[in-house]
Amino acid sequence: SAPLAPNTGAPDLSSFREEMLADPSKLMRVARGSPAIVDGQFVGFRIQPGSRRKLFRKLGFRPNDIITEVNGIVLDDMSKGAMIIGELSQASSLSVKVKRGNQEISIDHSF
Description:
With about 110 residues, the protein is α+β, with helices and mostly antiparallel strands. The protein is built from four helices and six strands; from the N terminus they run H-H-E-E-H-E-E-H-E-E.
């Protein structure tokens, strides 16, 4: 496995990605998602930190962020959560669009 990244730099996502692909429930240790509904429409997943709060913060997320897109997959339907796990198994990077308050924020990481 890859050495751990120093605390000052970006998190080492390659080892986390391997863990997540082997057991997708590990993702819940970083962030728990619940459907975000606005005006009766599903707009993404509202996230809260899981037990791995440090990694949650290092990834650039904040409590109550709404993830609206992952690697080009727009989260306009709850069933797309499973598509994302499949996409991440092939991806070399992670690109997440987040709605934080009235702002759209992009969070990008390499594996």
